[in-house]
């Protein structure tokens, strides 16, 4: 509109001159270059003002334009730099923030006894978890938006803790849950081993609680064979959320973890920002399926194992021993039917287990065997033609070895003792007389063939090799100690292995505890054949086994062996007692009150089926049964012959002369 204000701020021309709307304009004519031109007459002031305005506007426009060009140029350069040089790194960083590579747990293999009874298997459970950072933030925002609300973070976690504790009281308590909710952390696990249906109910009621699939290991036998079977689990507090497979921690669960565990699968998933374990549903991709683990089939017999554990524990208690271990081994194959320690544990209650309970003393703790080791001298003497069972030897009450005097366990003058009598009555002096005829080199070779100072290869973790001093380190008194079972050490499994060699016609077979693995497709793969080696000839082995029947005989006068209480009516029994002073750790010398009490025996002697080895740690030798493990052997062997319906021996063991007047 002409009379209005213009974008520049000046009024219309008509209004300023005061002329009529249609009045003619006054025009002047000016000659330019000989030609007359027409121009409007414009006041000087207006011309000057208009020019200044245009100059100012031009200056501002140019400045803004320059600034805009600079800014855009800088932004363009930055964009080029990002796209050209930082794009890959930024993309990778963004991807890491929203994706996680997670394991797909493999189903862990089960463990069975020799008859297919389950000793360990896995079940699916849930673990409840919560993102504490998100939960705190949400309740802070709730209170900000609802200042009158009586529900805050503390009230919410109290409600949730009370409800969960009511649903799974056997797994956790309200106080434990509250402590986890109040941790100064962004994330926490709350409780594991929750049944899937219960977990679903909890997470539906409380959306801030998430659940995660887990596998829980069950041990239906509880303490049955637990030192052998072991334990597998994942640790709720410390486990990386993307690595949550069961892993073996103790026993065969640990030693054979590669077989049992299988191979985890893997998948890429998206997680919400800040959530350690909450997977965005439907985001799974790049899935590599898990491969289930193999089952283990053991040599253990659950019934025999249970019986041995019970009897051993009771006997240790009755004799007030510090501990005890025992092994039952197949006489021919060296398969272990039972392996027990008085101290054991329930893997279903692993949180209450002490380190001492986890030990498997029968394979990990060596001890001085005492007279049980005299079988080495007996076998070497028969094998090398030094003596025969009925030969009579003049055996004094003591013998001098270097600067030491060795005596028998009972006082006597010089006795005429048969070779059988020397070992059945466990004469130290008679044994050393025969060892002298053998010589140290032959004795050392025989010790090595019996496997002493070497691990048996049973396949259980932590096995000790025991100790035999190297031949080149023997002193004058060494050969006065080793033949009677002092100055060397062995485990209960090694002790059983020695007698297995004699029961198996002189062939020592490497003990075994696993019979086979079974692959997920059902293929059964037997364990490799155990190594075997000949220790003595079959004739020597039979002779020594027959000689050791006299250990359990009860004869007239001095013709009783050291263990008549090991005898079983109707069966021939062959065995050897042992008693060795323990080393007093305070003085470093032998104790006068603490002993290792041992027994190793074969049942039946005329057709060997089983070898039983027992060690009692420092029983009270003043008690009626404290000085011998023979009664325990008798009870264990009696159960074995009934359980396996072993036929009675064809005839009773003959009573042979041990001491000749």
TrEMBL record:
GO cellular component: a single term: plasma membrane
Record domain Penicillin-binding protein transpeptidase: where: 324-636
Region (Disordered): 1-53, 518-538
Composition bias, Basic residues: 13-29, 37-48
InterPro entries linked to this entry: Beta-lactam/transpept, Beta-lactam/transpept-like, PBP_dimer, PBP_dimer_sf, PCN-bd_Tpept
Keyword ATP-binding attributed: no
Gly residues bias locations: 1-12
Molecular function, one GO term: penicillin binding
PANTHER family: PEPTIDOGLYCAN D,D-TRANSPEPTIDASE (PTHR30627), PEPTIDOGLYCAN D,D-TRANSPEPTIDASE FTSI (PTHR30627:SF1)
Name this protein carries in UniProt: Cell division protein FtsI (Penicillin-binding protein 3)
